[in-house]
Amino acid sequence: MPVSILGPAAPSSIILPFFSFCVPAGFPSPAQDHMEGTISLDELMDIRAPHTYMARADGDSMVDVGIFDRDILIISRGRSAERGEVVIAALDNEPLVKIFDRKDDQVVLRSANRKFPPRYLLESEELQVWGVVSFSIRFHGRY
Q1: Catalytic positions, written as ranges
Q2: 3-state secondary structure (DSSP) of residue 69
Q3: Which residue segments constitute the domains of the chain, with CATH numbers given?
Q4: Per UniProt, which keywords does this protein have (predicted)?
Q5: Is the pTM of this model over 0.85?
Q6: How would you write the pLDDT of the chain (143 residues) with one tens digit per residue?
Q7: Under a CB-based contact definition with an 8 Å cutoff, are residues 49 and 104 in contact?
């Protein structure tokens, strides 16, 4: 799944109300007496500029881990990728989002969609891991 790099995340001073209960997928609306306090999206998503940046997913190869076409991905480049983590990588300078894995001593980039086979890294190819995906954001309105 290709990605479009949107740029680094910048700190925000916006604080949002946070309600202390899970919202049912039915009709009830949150009442003021359930408000627990406030929350910062920077804290919730562990956004630590300049080690965090965003990208937009393109395609459907990662749907089984909940990453859909046009989702915005929050990526941390402050730590190394471990097996099984979703990463933003550049394969021969082409950015993509895949699950990072190894089989014996060979790097494998896996999709999260059965329609796409695993991609084994060849000796002639260059792979750079640009960061680990920690969150995805999906727009639920009309386009």
Answers
A1: 61, 98
A2: coil
A3: 3-9+48-137 (2.10.109.10), 15-44 (no CATH)
A4: Autocatalytic cleavage, DNA damage, DNA repair, Hydrolase, SOS response
A5: no
A6: 677 666 566 666 666 555 555 556 655 555 555 556 666 667 777 776 668 888 899 999 999 999 999 998 888 888 889 999 999 999 999 999 999 999 888 999 999 999 999 999 998 999 999 999 998 988 887 76
A7: no
